[in-house]
Amino acid sequence: MLAIPSRAYFKPLLKRTDDASFISFKGLRIVPLNLLLDRGGLDLSRRKLKYLMIYKCPKLSNVFDSFNLLQRLSCPKVKNFAATVISGGIQSTPMLKQIKLDGVDIMHNSRELMNAVVEGYSSHLSPLIASYSKKERRYTYTEMAVDIVISTIGKIGEFMVEPIGRKFEYLIHYNSNMETLKDQVQILEEVRKDVQGSVDAATAKGETIKNEVRNWMSRVEGVILEARKILEDDAVQNKRWFNRWFLDLASRYRLSRESEDKITATAKIKVDGQFDNVSMPAAPPEIVSQDFVIFESTRLAIMEIMEALEGNIINFIGIYGMAGVGKTTLVKEIERRAKEDMLFDAVVIAVVSRTVEVKNIQQQIADMLGFKFDEKREQGRAGRLHARLKSVDKILIILDDVWDTLDLAAIGIPFGDDDHKDPENVNRKVRKIVVTTRCRLACNSMTTGIETSKIIHLNALSENESWGLLKMNAGEVIDSPELNSVAKKVCRECGGLPIALVTVGRAMGDKAQEEWEEAALELQKPMPSNIDGTDEIVYKCLKLSYDHLKNREAKSMFLLCCLFPEDYNICIEVLVRYGIGLEMFKDVLTIQEARRRAHSITKNLKDSCLLLAGTETGCIKMNNVVRDVAKTIASDIYFVKAGVKLMEWPNAETLKHFTGISVMYNQINGYPASWDCSDLQILLMQGNCIEQPMPDGVFKGMTALRVFDQSDIISKGDPYFSRKLEPGFSFLTSLRTLIIKNCRIAAPAAIGNMKMLEVLSLANCKLLDLPQEIGELTNIRLLDLEDCHHSRKKLNAIFPPNVISRWSRLEELYSSSFMKYTREHIAELKSLSHLTTLIMEVHDFGCIPEGFSFPELEVFKIAIRGSVHHKQSNYLEVCGWVNAKKFFAIPSLGCVKPLLKRTQYLKLSSFEGLRTIFPYQLEDRDGLAVLETLEVSDCVDLEYLIDSEEWKMPPVIEQHQHTCLMHLEKLDLQCLGSFKGLCHGALPAEMSMSLQKLKSMRFFKCVKLSSVFASLELLRRFDELEELSVDSCEALEYVFNLKIEKPAFEEKEMLSHLRELALCDLPAMKCIWDGPARLLRLHNLQIADIQNCKKLKVLFDASVAQSLCQLRKLLVKGCDELETVVAKETQRQDGRVTVDIVVFPQLVELSLLYLPNLAAFCLDSLPFKWPSLEKVEVRQCPKMETLAATVDSEENQSTPKLKQIKLDEVDLIPHGRSLNKFIQKYSEARELRNLINDHQSRMRGLTES
């Protein structure tokens, strides 16, 4: 071997002759000739020469004679090997086995002359390289192999021209590089944990995780796995050095270089992980329109609209028709169909209404897209909305109830730009707008052109259609001889308007003939002259429906709803509090009874189509047409100017005779000097920008006022504008309901003068103080201080002493974290004999007096050393660090025992000594009878949820056998270091009906849990289970025990309702189930997420895979020993026919990531079909050469909907090609790349040695 360490030593030898034929070392085997920069020829006739490496020799054009491998790099003039090669052909190099040109192996397996190979390769490679630089990353598999080779050539070239000194640096800094990489991986893992914690917290809030965060988490996982592989190889190198007493310099060089690359990658990705926030507010759940009836007229309109939406030309659709004809119902159906058919990436709908409120429209669209505005002004919000809408490739925007020309640009809706000028460009952005209006002129003024717009007139129903709709709502009774003729008169008077036909039909369905005749006469009467803006037919029909409401309560509630702005989500709880103040509910004794009455009334009004379901939980809405009629009916008693941009108070003289005034959500910035409204009973002025103090005498003339709502009074400069409950409140001696939310308040001593006050709500306020005089409110029945804060930045505010006990009529107290309860405060609760609802937080066990017991509460949210920020009612949280048996025995915690029989959500955390939870709570005969959710965390000694061995220790009452845990739907067990299983021993007979409604189970960091369902008998109880998550349970060996204990159980299918299965970080799990797989029939499984189960070798048997008819997403990641996803079952002894084919009819997304031993999705010849598969991602699966066998002769027919394939970092578009072919070609290219890398490593070792 001849080793030339540097060019300085080699140059003198070169000067002796014009070529390199002087070399005459007889034993020469390896010659590095990278320094022959100016040589033109070389004659090496050495018989023992086995390896010739030539690179960076720009003038070299002749290489001669015998060798086994020729590697040519950066020698652009080499065109032939020598005359002997040309004349003798293959015989000149009889031992030649491999030719490697610019990093590409060309096997010597033909009689072709080497010259032809070199020339052909040289002539074809250059244009390929030139074209490669112009390519995008998306290409088909026919180009893939060449591109991978070319990219690898570039890497080899970089190495070969690298200075030799740099190579030695990798060896010198080997140990420090490894230590730095180890430190960087640890730091990156901590950053990942922090981000994951933020992701988990956001997910718990129901927020949507940003795509950039998800992508970052995936990148981090890959970088960490690759870095760990380097560190593992380093450990192997160290072991070899210890055992063999020599260093593998080539491997150390490679590892050192790779470690530097990974150090740079970890540093960069760590910086990329500095997110301001990881999530966006989740888009609200979709509410589908109900009771939609398609008649011929509406069917034709729907066909026209859907055709326009599916096409490429029309971008604006205007729907016009008279009030009540069904425009809103129609576009809700269009919204539903567009989403169902997935025509757009996003579909949003906003109600415009008569008074255009730009901010409100912007907010509606933003809410449906799931993002929030940071900007306050309309112009800034418009720009933000415009950018957000343009970022969506395909979007449908529906604007309902437009009254006049709408400035779309002012709202931020992009329209009329260049997006639609090229109808043939199918990949363009698509934004389509649908508008409903009563006036065609509004449509005409908004269109961009005749060719790109469509105007549709929605006609009234025909006579036959009208009769059908009336009969649908009134019933078959109208076909009777007594009612038929008069019902047809009523039908004609409804004018073919669906809103009239539905409301009249539901109002008259159970009425006698005389009432039908009276209704026909009423509908024939002329409309009152003071009606403005309301269609005559609509008014008369809705007025008829109103007149036929069953009682005054329903009529009062209906008219109360018209006090709110158009399209407003009216909270039923607000109506309850208003109704109590107005004494609307007759013959009710408690607030809970009034609440139930209000819900019953609103349900009846919805059934009568006079109200609609709201888009928020606990809310209702009033159709704008119905609201106009309600306002007209109530025009003698109510003055309504809500949400109309009112700037100043109306003339005081015009308000004198009204009993109700609503000026909510306007822009009024002050008060009148005085009011003489002696008949006024309800005043609603929330949502204005009032900045000046209230005049002292402003309430002096309102002696009859019963309800006053002044919530959301904001200042332009300070959202928590400081407001006092002015001394003028002392005049409101008849006030029964006072609501002031979202303000900063100082309550004066004058508040004690409002002795009739029954409902006081100061929720979400910053309170300056609570005076002693608040105890004078002896008639108070509901006090709401939820989510309040102390404006002086104290941690908590404290009620004055001896106040609570004076509220003898108090029924409902909402306080949450605002109150810092002392022992004295809690002791005062004993005197509240009418208390039915309580929301409170107790910060310390010492605050609970001995012997105290909560009363028989109907509704509660109570947290002892916890938080009540939870939506579900009847919530009980106890955070411990006391002995378990003291939990239900010591006096300070015995107070919760009366609550257990009504508890729906129970959370226990941080208890020492708590070995089992049941049967401790069963000392009470109705314990946990209605429990729906149980969450247990950080109880270090907990071993079992139920311990049958100790079941008879406490006295168990017979009644429990049908009540305990019968309604439990969700079980969440977290961070339980000693937890071994759900049940110790067989489940007690007393619990024979328990646990059977469980729908969701989660096990997190239960490190001693070896099996979730330890017996088949236990598993049979969970027939309703829909979600199962097992995470970070180190000892878990399998999830399901399917071993048959009794023949009677053999044929019962298990887990047929399971929808989601997540198994993550289970290092000991070798199989998901133990026993015959045929008992698992996962017919409803939609999502399977299997990650970091290191010892898992097979995911599903074929019989289980065959049952996955609803599976939509399958993710398998980081399972080091996984060899195949689906394994064909061994021959059955029962003689049954084995599975012949597996079809995944609903599978849309398949991800196989970081699976080093995965050879195929299925190794056997079992054929698969994937009719819905759209996206496949395969990353770091080096042994995978094919996916699975297919059933069709043309393989692409097995994946007809495939849109995207991602193989490692390469994105591919299938264009109808076979998925198997892609993976096979990629595998071949990967093998070629690995071979190149192997030779590259060998060359490095040779040059370094």
From TrEMBL:
Species: Populus tomentosa
Domain (AAA+ ATPase): residue spans on this chain: 313-462
PANTHER family: NB-ARC DOMAIN-CONTAINING PROTEIN, NB-ARC DOMAIN-CONTAINING PROTEIN-RELATED
Protein name: AAA+ ATPase domain-containing protein
Molecular function via GO: ADP binding
SMART domains attached to this UniProt entry: AAA
Superkingdom per UniProt: Eukaryota
Coiled coil, from the record: 171-198
InterPro entries: AAA+_ATPase, At4g27190-like_LRR, NB-ARC, Plant_NBS-LRR
Entry-linked Pfam families: LRR_RPS2, NB-ARC
Keywords: Coiled coil, Plant defense
Regions crossing the membrane: none
